[in-house]
Amino acid sequence: MGVPDRYHLVVANARLRGRGDIVHHIGIRSGRIAAIEPSPLRGDAELDAAGNLVTPSFVNAHLHLDKVYTLSLAGEEPLQHYTGGQMGQAMTAIELAARVKDRYEEGWIHRHAHRALLDGLKHGVTHVQAFADTDTRGRLEGVKALLRLREEWRGVVDVRVVAFPQDGVLRDPGAEDYVRQALEMGAGVVGGIPWIEHTDRDAQEHIDRMLALASVFNRDVAMLTDDAGDPGLRTTEMLAAAAIREGWTGRVMACHARAMGLYPEPYFRRLIGLVRRAGMSFVTDPHTGPLHLRVWDLLEAGVPVALGQDDIADAYYAFGQHNLLEVVFLAAHILGRSTRRELEVLLDMITTQAARVLRVADYGLEVGRAAHLVVLEGSTVLDVITPHRPPRYVISHGRLVAQTTGTTTFHAIPTP
Ligand SMILES: [Zn+2]
Question: Which helix (H) or strand (E) holds 11?
Fold first, then answer.
């Protein structure tokens, strides 16, 4: 036996959620959290958290990683249609945005996506569920770029690639075949966007075909449901019902599902019962559109909900730094939730809830789990959300992978 109480890395003087006011020390050995103690620990290397909050690193459950930084290519027209009014023209936005895909090429997608992962890591993001348009216009260029990235970043950022038929399966004959090829190439998740089809029957078939692929390839499913301002959209329900029928409970998530914000109460209550039976989870991104799902009601019913970045400077959203604390900050405003308890819940939605949604098992601030941690700037949840600055340190698989320092020097200011 070696020295049992010596660690490869120690994060000292960490403030931890739910552990009161005293600071703790986290011992990391072989990439895992080996100890969390109130007394100091000895390590080969040490990072001083200096009383700042330490949490698990951030999980981005929804990002269109093949489209990042394409706003200048797409122009502003789709943006107007997607975010305007009550999202009556969301479909037009998607049709306009698809023009970018005629220029899809693995090389530049890879360069853009690499930069987005770097931006994310700076902000503490170590897990990303990345959607790649997989259809007759985008072909497999996005998938190829993101699969390459997944291998290059292995051990630092976990990239989960979703094969996503953005323009529909019935509306875009041939897309299904591209999704199948993407899965054969190793894409980890089956995507879908049933609401974009022309009829409810086609939406149902879209779901059935994608679930059939999920079953053949044994993959989880992440679909964009009901992403327009129409209370009559029912593809969240269709997806949940199909998951139950096809024996895919617990393996299906819905992103966006914005029409939920317009559902009549009795229908919404019925839907909650169904999604619970389906073991379905949700990802929301209230900053990228004027409608959003009923986050608090879902969470109260025990349905997992994550916050995602969704877009970074593309046809649907002009901003984005891959900063999930910023996403939390925006969500707090848009959803009108800012008590201490509510901010805690929002922070869970980019950490533990998001890990639940993506079924990342080896995660969390507990002894024995993989050491994915961030040392934040601030000692309370409010302190870190308010400025949403990059973490001081980002640790992935027990290794320091990003460090941010920055100070402002004032000149010629009056003395108090
Ligand atoms: Zn999205």
Answer: strand 6-14
Residue among 153, 135, 132, 11 nearest 68 (CA) = 132
pLDDT confidence tier of residue 97, bands split at 50, 70 and 90: confident
- Report the alpha-carbon distance of residue 270 to residue 197 in Å, rounded: 24
Cα of 54 from ligand 1 centre, angstroms: 29
* Alpha carbon of 410 to ligand 1 centroid (Å): 41
What is the Cα 199 distance to its own chain's centre? 29
- Taken as a whole, the chain contains a residue count of 416
Look at 82 and 207; give whichever has higher pLDDT: 207
End-to-end CA distance of the chain: 59
Confidence (pTM): 0.95
Residues 6+ apart with CB under 8 A from 378: 52, 53, 384, 386, 387
Of the candidates 319, 337, 396, the residue with the CA atom closest to the CA atom of residue 156: 396
Q: What is the pLDDT of residues 261-318, one digit of tens each?
A: 999 999 999 999 999 999 999 999 999 988 889 999 999 999 999 999 999 999 899 9
Could you give the CA distance from residue 68 to residue 80 in angstroms, rounded to a whole number? 18
Distance 256 CA to ligand 1 centre (A): 6
